[in-house]
Amino acid sequence: MGSTIRDVARAAGVSASTVSRALSERGSVSGETRSRVIAAAERLDYRPNPTARGLITGRTGNLGLIVPDLLNPFFADVAKGLQSRARATGLSVFVADADEDPRLELEAVQSLTRQVDGLVLCSPRSDVAELVRHAATPVVLIHRRHPGLSSVTADVSGGTVKAVQNLRALGHTTIAYVDGPAASWVGGQRREGLREAVQATGVEVIHLGNFAGTFDGGFAAADLMLASPATAVLAYNDIVACGLLNRLAARGVRVPDDVSVVGYDDVTIAMMTYPPLTTVHLPRQSAARTAVDLLVAAIKDPDVAPREDVLATHLVVRASTGVPARR
Amino acid sequence: MGSTIRDVARAAGVSASTVSRALSERGSVSGETRSRVIAAAERLDYRPNPTARGLITGRTGNLGLIVPDLLNPFFADVAKGLQSRARATGLSVFVADADEDPRLELEAVQSLTRQVDGLVLCSPRSDVAELVRHAATPVVLIHRRHPGLSSVTADVSGGTVKAVQNLRALGHTTIAYVDGPAASWVGGQRREGLREAVQATGVEVIHLGNFAGTFDGGFAAADLMLASPATAVLAYNDIVACGLLNRLAARGVRVPDDVSVVGYDDVTIAMMTYPPLTTVHLPRQSAARTAVDLLVAAIKDPDVAPREDVLATHLVVRASTGVPARR
DNA sequence: TTGTAAGCGTTATCAT
DNA sequence: ATGATAACGCTTACAA
């Protein structure tokens, strides 16, 4: 066991409360006493027990993060960003992987909420109102909006418009779209952006239908895409794009000579495909940072008005897009 | 604020200690009283405060995991596996991303150790003895061994032998090896396996040198590989292999027709390359599960002898390996 | 400035 | 079987 505040008090010849004050830099303590306490604490390698402190202050010094799937690089990135910002703020973070399961999300909220000062819900699959009802701490949403809650989202539809505009500028007039799971929030945003883009550029968009947001989803969509008159394809995300690329390669279709492919998210893998993927960059680490800041603000003052931050997106042009093949 | 044990006690017309006993299933409580308490607890939606409980029991119900980099799918997988096993055991998990920085690893140990019942150190970059010295709880290592500590590792050298044997069976007699960071523990294991394989199969191994364990590392190694007489290449891990594949494609080299490529780890991305990667599968989720079990055992009885579990590895043959081209 | 004492919510000990 | 009481390690009135 580590040494307690009493050990330090005894060693420094003062009372426990004086140690507490001296170490918290806050109470009024004479300089001489303070240095004696600090020396004693140092010597005994004293570290305040966060549990005990939390019991009385009501603060745990912890944040909770709930993501649908840590294996998805998108969420891993969020976890990493949150992590690093939290550390900089002196906070530790609980991570719960809900395995894409709404029930587990709720369970995670329940088991975490008492041990954290605030909760970050990233792309929750379940009903947000329900989750919040069980949260005993401030909540910030990432990648989803909800009335009355602070959230950090990306300008998904804006990014979609940029992608389509770029394709149009290259000469593409018919573009296929591989949608993800029907219920997805980003999916809705994406379709919204597509509508805008059609109005703005006059391209024709062919909806290939809903697919799993996975490699297999993209793999399956490729054949449909090739059967359509589209010369370019916009994928639900980079992983789906990766599946597309793979199937296209297997069928001997050259990218971007024969078909242009655009992904979404700009996760690490987008740089590692062949050819490297043109994709809409969604800020993740900065979204996570913002989320921490919003949470910290809400913890300090539970009555601050919720803020809905929308982060800019931009198109990263790599080698998977080019001028359309003559047909 | 949620309701406390006293609220429940009052509602059930018993004392707080009876509530505690009734709910913990452990103390002797009459069936009638128990059901009354449970009903009251239900009604008030009472949940024991883990902080307060932890203060007296010394148990937090939490596990800590420290990984070098959550963005590395290998570690994300470990995190996910640990997560799910911990949940099944009624434990929550703190995750710390040390950002490949030994100093941050130590910091993470210090800030987490008081809030957890046990710590899992995954592929620590820093001196294990130093880390353990600052840990106030049981520690289990993943992917690294250390005298006196429980650990879960994979039979890396055995996997290497299998990979080389397979290549030899295909007809390859000269194999290039792309090593990772010089200090890496797995790197050492891999080289050991290589030595064994050379003895067993008589192939010639050409060490291309140390590279970063990243996409760029593989990208850079590809040119060296092509300049060598090797017909196959073994990469430090799948990400490196991915870099290799990419550069090879860019230089017009066909895989596996011209060159065979073998990765290491079998992370998700290995299935998504073109062609899909032959790779040595390292069990991660099961390693994480085992780690949780070892930790739980050590928590229950701090005096159990440390156990060094070595998990089997196997070769996953996909499409990146084939018979060597005639030279 | 410093110490004393109360209390955070729970469980463990000891009576009853 | 149940209840009173102390204790876990800390912070924070309040008193000195």
Overview of this protein structure:
2 copies of one chain form a homodimer. The first copy, chain A, has helices at residues 5-12, 16-24, 31-44, 50-57, 73-88, 102-112, 128-133, 156-170, 185-201, 215-227, 238-250, 285-300, and strands spanning 62-67, 92-97, 118-122, 139-142, 150-154, 174-179, 204-210, 232-235, 260-265, 278-281, 308-311, 314-316. Helices cover 45% and strands 18% of the residues of chain A. Chain A has 12 helices and 12 strands. The first copy, chain A, is of the alpha/beta class. The interface between A and B is large, with 50 and 50 residues. The structure holds a DNA duplex (16 and 16 nucleotides).
Notable features of this structure?
homodimer; 327 residues; alpha/beta; 434 Repressor (Amino-terminal Domain); Rossmann fold; 6-stranded parallel beta sheet; 6-stranded mixed beta sheet; 12 helices; DNA-binding
How are the SSEs ordered, and which strands pair?
The structure is a homodimer of 327-residue chains.
Chain A: H1 5-12, H2 16-24, H3 31-44, H4 50-57, E1 62-67, H5 73-88, E2 92-97, H6 102-112, E3 118-122, H7 128-133, E4 139-142, E5 150-154, H8 156-170, E6 174-179, H9 185-201, E7 204-210, H10 215-227, E8 232-235, H11 238-250, E9 260-265, E10 278-281, H12 285-300, E11 308-311, E12 314-316
Parallel strand pairs in A: 1-2, 1-3, 3-4, 4-5, 5-11, 6-7, 6-8, 8-9, 9-10
Antiparallel strand pairs in A: 10-12
Helix pairs in contact in A: 1-2, 1-3, 2-3, 5-12, 8-9, 10-11
The structure holds a DNA duplex (16 and 16 nucleotides).
